[in-house]
Predict the structure.
Amino acid sequence: MNYKELFEQIKLKQSFLCLGLDSDFEKLPKHLLSFEFPVFEFNKQIIDASVKYVVAYKPNLAFYESLGLAGWQSLEMTVDYIRDNYPEIFIIADAKRGDIGNTSKLYAKAFFEKMNFDAITVAPYMGEDSVKPFLTYKNKWLILLALTSNIGADDFQYFSENKQRLFEKVLEKSQDWGDANNMMYVVGATRAEMLKDVRKIVPNHFLLVPGIGAQGGSLQEVAKYGMNENCGLLVNSSRAIIFADSSENFAITARIKAQEVQDEMRTLLKAKEII
Amino acid sequence: MNYKELFEQIKLKQSFLCLGLDSDFEKLPKHLLSFEFPVFEFNKQIIDASVKYVVAYKPNLAFYESLGLAGWQSLEMTVDYIRDNYPEIFIIADAKRGDIGNTSKLYAKAFFEKMNFDAITVAPYMGEDSVKPFLTYKNKWLILLALTSNIGADDFQYFSENKQRLFEKVLEKSQDWGDANNMMYVVGATRAEMLKDVRKIVPNHFLLVPGIGAQGGSLQEVAKYGMNENCGLLVNSSRAIIFADSSENFAITARIKAQEVQDEMRTLLKAKEII
């Protein structure tokens, strides 16, 4: 999917919601455990219920890897299910990979060829040759960690040289490797005020913003400081939507929660005269 | 495996060789392709041939993930094979993972419980809560990226604040999270002279040193600047050993190449009066 198509989807659905499929096996509604692939069954029902309000789904790989082979099967089945039924959806592998050149190339192959993801999150620590292999695929996206939503972001991401902080260095340096048509950045909603500084360096790029919902970030603040004229935001929520209800009605509740977020997003898009 | 046991193995085998199982499907000897799990068959023969000269094996996850389910099966079979036949071996998942706290916890579970690895490589960018979950397992190890062997290491790892470079900040800050009994660091052999600076901050820790062999680093230099009285080094070679020969004799050639490295290592251990 390219930049324009993604923006069209945002306008069509009046939403920039990315729903995180952090489908923790321990938290699944109990009645799903009798299925051969409970995680896939959970995802399928969540997707069917929420898709009207969602432009992107983002499985975090840890929740699948931790289940071994059955987890990987559930992940592949989930991606295939979305592709077959909702081809308009943007699918992000939240994998936070990154390795030396010849190895990153294989990760790119795994996520873009073997599985048909649109985008993958990548950690910047190892620099250019660890990042570039993800940028060689047409209509695929690299999402580079810049300023993350967790508390540990303070440890290294604000480290600074001549008043430039590391996350700013990552934003700046990576301009040599790709552009707004194949790169996005992770910027945590828990650090919404920093979006002002981020936008000074990358005014046009899409930002993947985790941290609203369970992590406590504010959607209003994110839009205030981060939204550009093409929206430029994919705001992620995971636990607050998919695990809002652990009863047999979990999917209906997830739909209601997703719709609540989308309602707020529509208002914000209108205020910015995007729709 | 604990620090003392690892050091004992090094003295016993007169080697600090870590053999990287970067078992690229595209490079496997052709006669193995008729096996149901060619990658596992390759690994098994490489392991049987080289184990006398090796203290650690290190599969890089990318080479397995890129094959999908069959890759993960080959990885699990490889770990199980080593555990069953060579329980004295230290096994490293070269995964370069790292995510927010609750997610890193699941990666730790995947690699330390679901699969029985001794250690996992982790990227430091996301800080403390992304790292700590790997430090809660007894006799398991976190191996944190500090100064990597690839060219892209220049992009961010030398970024500096008040004359402290980012890789030094990583070494220093992580002293709050663990110690020489549960943490190691990746320092590339291609930057051997930097080992002097690394050792100023972490004199006692084991270092995992990739980059000799195909990447061109020098074992002599690594030992000169990095070896401490408990050796303190696991030096990795991958392609230069496992893909030295693509004929049916590949395992015999790998054994010879591993023995050549071990010969050099024995000399270095003797020079330091460790054996």
